[in-house]
Amino acid sequence: MADSGMLLNFDIGDAPLKKQVKFTGGRWRDRVHAQRSARKNREGPVGASDVNATPLSNDRRDRTVTETHHDYDERPTKRLKTFGDSSGRYDTNGTAARTGGNAPTRPGGITSRLFTSNPTPRTVFGEPAEETEPAKPSNAPLTNEAENFHALGLSWRIAQHLSSKLEMKAPTSIQKNTIPLLVKEDSDAFLQAETGSGKTLAYLLPIVQRIMALSCHEDGTSTGTKIHRDSGLFAIVLAPTRELCKQIAAVLDKVLRFAPWIVSTTVIGGESKKSEKARLRKGVNILIATPGRLADHLDNTKVLDVGTVRWLILDEGDRLMEMGFENELKSIVGKIREEKLKETNKEGVTLGALPQRRVTVLCSATMKMNVQKLGEISLQDAIHITASKSDNDANDTTETNDAVFSAPSQLKQTYVVVPGKLRLVTLIAFLKSAFARKGSVMKAIVFISCADSVDFHFELLRSSPSKSDDTSLIKDTVADAAYITSPANPNINLLKLHGSLQQPVRTATLASFQDSKDPCVLITTDIASRGLDVPAVELVIEYDPAFSVDDHVHRIGRTARAGRPGKAALFLQPGCEEGYIDLLKSATPLAPQSFDATLQKGFVTPITLPKSGDSTDPQTLTSDRQSPNSRAEALQLHLEQRLLASASASASEKEGNSSGNSNANNNHNNNNKSNKLLDAARQAFRSHVRAYATHVRDERVYFDITQLHLGHAAKSFALREAPGGIGGGPSRRTFKAGHHHQKQSSGGGGQKRSGGGGGDSDREDDGAAADEDAAKRMRMKMRAVMSAASEFNIG
User: Fold this and answer.
1) Of the candidates 761, 770, 771, which has an alpha carbon nearest to the alpha carbon of residue 722?
2) What are the b/e assignments for 43-68, b being 16+ CB within 10 Å?
């Protein structure tokens, strides 16, 4: 039978047909990622129909994804989870409404993806070490009954005052080795000892003893010579920061309470020159100053006579050189040496009990090259004095150069390896666990790299109502803390301190921190890392690693002082930063700690939210799943939405003002305050990245700016994407107020594409080519960052 037809046989197999997936809305990159994920889930080769699954809409404002299959684990875009009320519960109904009622209702809602796409740490975390007996303090006063201040050459009057009024029964090791030499000899000295060991009294007590000897015998009887404030300037103490000058002056005032006729004062930057000149005109015996202000007075204040000066103390010599005071120090030392040494004062009193030459005492933690240079400028045949011994051979510096300045032996140190995205929630968890028990920690210090970041974290972690009245100096630097409180410590004070604050504000804030009877946390830059002595500080957190190992030692030295116990924690990111531990040489080893253990310990209990409006009832952040990790995700989303809400509020205000909406005008102040937090986050991120590029040259291998993930770093500032303008410097931030949000928005989008950061980088897909391109563009951006690294403010 003839048949011209054609018979075709198709074998489609036994597997059921899968419907085609169509993606609409969102960004082009999100749709491409979703298509790749869909292809992975299919069997067989990719057909032509897969390639043609093109988007049906290019509207970026509509991020809804239409899916014809029911695999909700592969979402091409991250939908925004909202909180339905002030208590922080998830608004699952709102999410379903945005997706047409088809959104899945999984327990806990949509996660913030904090625990995905994180680098794997190289550190091996073992079991937590058992509590052992605390090590014997290395900076505590001596316990030998024969060791007392009178045996060191001080008068009975001074020794009795130290014992009865200041409760100092015995000297420390550095005081034992320093005081006899400075009392009996007229040689220059180089003091080197660990933090909190009493170096300040080691050089102040000999000065007071020898000035007292002008008017009093050893038994306390009068010599017939009257010494008062107008008898002459006998000693000058130079310190690198204003806060350290204030602290030295406070210690000296306590010592001089038994001899009120000996007068001391300070001349520091930020104070009135007119009032300082008035005090100098009345007369002063011991002057404590910063180098810049003292050099100015030597040039312009004729009443300042240095002819009777016998002692020049250079405290924190390494910091003096690091802060660029070399020229001022050369000028000061030169002018003092040029002035002829007077054997009698203007009243004709013979100064025989004082040194017959000018004595220079240099105090420094290390023997670095800049300190050696300062020693060459100021010292002549100096005696090297340490806590263990004194060395009369000033030329033999081999052992000194190789010596490593260590932390107190009783200080317990840990380091926490935290991925960039989890840094903020881990810091809150760490503080929350520290204050979980009443009396466990009274005062803590958190060190951050730059002033902008200090401002942001203070505003983020504070409770909304101000703690002080509007006229107080500390109204913007002291507040009630949120998030870190606990049932045992419901009230915790939060303070901030950095060099951009005015001097009266800095002084009042530091005094509030020292005098506070409640638990408190001080967020600060390195301005508080040198010499400050707050006895009740039990915890130091280095949220941003120090710019050098020496700065790290001084930071942790704010705790475990004078034999008291203390704890210190260092935050590091996985990767190259973990190698930084090998550089930290200390008397006690650093124990590694996982961020997961910190979250488990800190988020066991609900998180207290900041107060809003006139509400006085505490509100807590809760989630459907009460695990610590879910609380961390809920907290991160809550913080991000605080910033996003500020942007929305600002946009609503702008639209309301343009249309004459009176309601928007009524909320003007609140919107500005909210938008201020978003701006602070963006500026803090930029300053943080610039600061990251300024580690000392030898340590940049551990803090490689090209390895810093900008998107993950932005997450630690509660930002969903990294803002632009990192390498532009201050000029990039000078724009008109009307164009503020537009420029911020365009900068953020550009950074998100070029930096490999933001929300896109958190997805787990096979976009290796796109990530490589992003990495190349990020390296180009980092070159701009390096060129602008000096433009940030570290206080």
Assistant:
1) 761
2) eeeeeeeeeebebeeeeeeebbbebe
CA 603 centroid distance within chain? 23
> Above 80 in pLDDT, residue 624?
no
* Contacts of 271 by beta carbon, 8 Å cutoff, 6+ apart: 293, 503
Q: Where do the DSSP E strands lie in 210-250?
A: 235-238
Residues sharing a CB contact under 8 Å with residue 176, sequence separation 6 or more, in sequence order: 142, 147, 152
Nearest to 246 by CA among 670, 10, 32, 531: 531
For the beta sheet containing 520-524, the strands, ordered from the edge strand earlier in sequence to the opposite edge, are 478-480, 493-497, 520-524, 443-447, 537-542, 566-572, 411-417, 590-594
The confidence score (pLDDT) of residue 584 equals 82
Residue 332 corresponds to which tokens in the numbers above?
């000061």
Compute the distance between CA of residue 756 and CA of residue 595 in angstroms, rounded to an integer. Answer: 24
Q: Give the CA distances from residue 697 to residues 282, 407, 487, 577, in Å, rounded to whole numbers and listed in that order.
A: 48, 23, 46, 14
- Average pLDDT score, the chain: 76
pLDDT at 366 over 90: no
CB neighbours (10 Å) of residue 508?
19
All residues at 6 or more sequence positions from 362 whose CB lies less than 8 Å from its CB, including other chains: 188, 189, 190, 191, 314, 317, 371, 374, 375, 378, 379, 382
What is the spatial distance between Cα 113 and Cα 122, in angstroms, rounded to a whole number?
Answer: 22
Whole-number CA gyration radius for the chain: 32
pLDDT digits (tens, 9 = 90+) for 19-39: 666 777 777 788 888 888 887
What DSSP assignment string belongs to 469-498?
Answer: -TTSTTTTTEEEB-SS--SS----EEEEE-
* Residue pLDDT, tens place only, 102-152: 333 333 334 457 888 898 888 877 655 555 555 666 666 666 656 788 899
Query: How would you classify the pairing of strands 478-480 and 264-267?
Result: unpaired
Task: Indicate the Cα dihedral angle 451, 457, 460, 465, nearest 10°.
Answer: -70
Phi, psi of 767 (to 5 degrees): -85, 60
> In Å, how far are 103, 146, 193, 253 from 244, measured between CA atoms?
59, 32, 17, 14
What's residue 16's pLDDT?
Answer: 57
Does the pLDDT of residue 384 top 80, yes or no?
Answer: yes
Domains of the chain: 173-401 (3.40.50.300)
SS3 414: strand
Contact predicate 762/113, CB 8 Å: yes
pLDDT at 680: 94
DSSP annotation of 565: -
**Whole-angstrom Cα distance, residue 440 to residue 603?**
17
Mean pLDDT of 310-314: 95
Question: 82-91, 175-184, 210-219, 519-528: which range is least confident on average?
Answer: 82-91
E strands along 735-774, which residues? Answer: none
Residue type for position 283: G
pLDDT for 96 = 35
CA angle 758, 463, 673 (to 5 degrees): 65
Residue whose structure tokens are 């989008």 = 749
Within 8 A by CB and 6+ apart from 144, the residues are: 170
Closest by CA position to 621, among listed 610, 606, 632, 636? 606
CA 478, CA 518: separation in Å to the nearest integer? 13
For the ranges 96-100, 364-368, 672-676, 682-686, the lowest mean pLDDT is seen at: 96-100
521 pLDDT above the threshold of 90: yes
CA 269, CA 239: separation in Å to the nearest integer? 12
CA-CA distance, 447 to 455, in Å (whole number)? 12
The two beta strands, 235-238 and 607-608, are unpaired
**461 pLDDT band (50/70/90 cuts)?**
very high
